[in-house]
Amino acid sequence: MAGLPSLTEIFDEFELLDGEDRYRLLIDLGRQLEPMPDALKTDATKVRGCSASVWVYPTAQDGRLHFLADSNAAITKGIVALILSAVQDKAASEVAAWLWCNSAATTLEPLTSADPGTTASSQ
What we know:
The protein is α+β, with helices and mostly antiparallel strands. The chain has helices at 7-16, 20-31, 74-87, 92-103, and strands at residues 54-61, 64-71. It has a single domain, classed as Sufe protein. Chain: A, CATH 3.90.1010.
């Protein structure tokens, strides 16, 4: 399997699409996931809190993180593929740095002081 496209490639294509075509892109990404053997779809690999069933099985190959994942819902599987496109086959330190840098973008409240752990609600 050739692997997933990069996030940049996905975002570039996503920007050109609208409506139903964006859903089709996600579904197509899900189809590009490496097959996950049924034997790995266990309670231990199941992601909690999803309305769809999602399984993620992490491995390390040559010092890099590699994930097998699957879902029983096509769009959810595409979202999983989108996430994996950012972290698949990267060193754990790269993934941690990427998550750290991008976690600020998901913060709902702006930081109000120089202390990165202080938000408006914690003052």
